[in-house]
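Quick one, probably user error.
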């Protein structure tokens, strides 16, 4: 089946590549000429495990192509996935301007029936606005539908190919039939397709992400109690998570959630609740606890280092989570800025996210980036662990100790073995244990 995907970011490119990989014919539209050239050559502009290989395979087999021409993209197929960004406005609302731009192009260029699919995360009842916008411009028949994505960066390709559920919000039999055809390669393998009305599908996305955020903030709140009472958050998380009704995932305490989805979606949901005069208490508390995590961590740094002026401090982990180069709402941003303001000499290392991080915090006399995590440790008074990359967990602790001026580790993700670090003679501080 022919499919159009508009946008080639973390969601668009994964959606396009995976739909091609299951046998569809996909045309993906990307505005930026530079990225378009890269994509045509099979180079992914983002780091996502498995994506480049999948992209090249489907380019070779002519199942995927790219264009910068919106008219061509829109009339390539009847199913158009909108996969553009919906960042947060200063007021906390979801900024729908990129979605509106796409919808305006669709209504301008469409020459036949179209199924306009919201894949980007949009507030409940955005489909009504989209419908109104298109109606105003054309008499040609169309449907609007919601098909939220549940792709976690670092495992997006796997998540798309092995979904817990595929959620589709439709209000016509025609739209439903198109989705059944698009997702047939998944439903035949037994992956569940949940078909709902459109507002429900729109809400499912926000409700899921806000729940995950709440779960993280909840365990972080419990972690504060562990800290005060001598309990260990590792044991508590394990004990709580063994209850199948609760589940063990998303119970890792530490620096809290970052990224392009959880923070943005909680904020946007609060805004929607306010618009409907509903109580926002639980959501606001989730956000407040998350914000405080970085302050608590930084306090630990201050308490353990006294004066930071001129001290060498090493930070491992710039990405908001492992296996991605994405630094949006990454806790490292606030932490590095604070260290810089305190006059520290900051040495930074991340396996994938340094290039993106340098765009926000460029190298200068106080900030140095390293290609090797051990090189970044020389003469350091403290190592701050900020992202839970596996390669940090597997570090040679004797070597770390040898390289540092004073062996202090402040572990914001609880990734090191606490007893081992104590045995090795580190001053080791973690969160809630
Ligand atoms: C999230 C959702 O998981 C995904 O389904 C949705 O489609 C997009 O948003 P993502 O933002 O890629 O995915 O990352 P996620 O794995 O949810 O992690 C978000 C943040 O929470 C990261 O900063 C991570 O470090 C943190 N986290 C996660 C914790 O602090 N503790 C945990 O137990 C789990």
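Nope, works fine. Designed sequence:
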């Amino acid at each position: 089946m022919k499919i159009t995907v508009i946008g080639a970011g973390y969601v668009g490119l994964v959606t396009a590549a995976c739909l091609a990989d299951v046998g569809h014919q996909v045309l993906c539209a990307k505005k930026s000429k530079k990225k378009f050239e890269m994509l045509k050559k099979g180079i992914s502009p983002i780091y996502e495990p498995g994506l480049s290989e999948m992209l090249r395979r489907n380019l070779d087999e002519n199942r995927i192509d790219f264009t910068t021409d919106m008219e061509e993209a829109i009339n390539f197929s009847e199913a158009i996935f909108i996969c553009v960004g919906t960042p947060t406005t200063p007021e906390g609302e979801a900024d729908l301007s990129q979605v509106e731009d796409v919808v305006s192009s669709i209504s301008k260029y469409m020459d036949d029936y179209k199924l306009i699919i919201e894949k980007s995360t949009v507030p409940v009842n955005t489909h009504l606005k989209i419908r109104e916008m298109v109606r105003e411009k054309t008499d040609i028949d169309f449907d609007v539908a919601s098909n939220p994505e549940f792709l976690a960066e670092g495992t997006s390709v796997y998540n798309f190919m092995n979904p817990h559920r595929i959620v589709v919000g439709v209000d016509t039999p025609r739209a439903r039939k198109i989705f059944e055809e698009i997702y047939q390669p998944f439903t035949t393998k037994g992956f569940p397709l949940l078909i709902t009305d459109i507002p429900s599908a729109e809400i499912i996305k926000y409700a899921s992400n806000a729940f995950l955020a709440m779960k993280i903030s909840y365990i972080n709140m419990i972690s504060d109690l562990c800290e005060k009472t001598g309990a260990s958050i590792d044991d508590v998380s394990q004990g709580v998570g063994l209850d199948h009704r609760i589940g063990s995932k998303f119970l890792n305490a530490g620096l809290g959630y970052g990224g392009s989805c959880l923070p943005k979606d909680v904020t946007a949901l609060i805004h929607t609740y306010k618009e409907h005069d509903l109580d926002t208490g639980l959501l606001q508390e989730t956000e407040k606890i998350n914000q405080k995590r970085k302050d608590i961590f930084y306090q630990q740094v201050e308490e353990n280092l006294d004066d930071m002026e001129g001290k060498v401090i090493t930070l491992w982990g710039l990405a908001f989570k492992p296996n991605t180069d994405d630094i949006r709402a990454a806790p490292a941003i606030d932490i590095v800025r604070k260290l810089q303001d305190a006059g520290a000499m900051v040495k930074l290392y991340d396996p994938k996210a340094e290039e993106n991080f340098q765009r926000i915090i460029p190298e200068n006399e106080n900030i140095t980036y390293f290609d090797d995590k051990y090189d970044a440790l020389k003469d350091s008074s403290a190592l701050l662990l900020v992202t839970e990359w596996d390669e940090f967990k597997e570090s040679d602790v004797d070597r770390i100790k040898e390289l540092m001026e004073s062996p202090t580790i402040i572990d914001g993700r609880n990734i090191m073995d606490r007893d081992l670090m104590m045995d090795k003679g580190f001053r080791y501080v973690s969160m809630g244990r």
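The chain has a mean pLDDT of 97.
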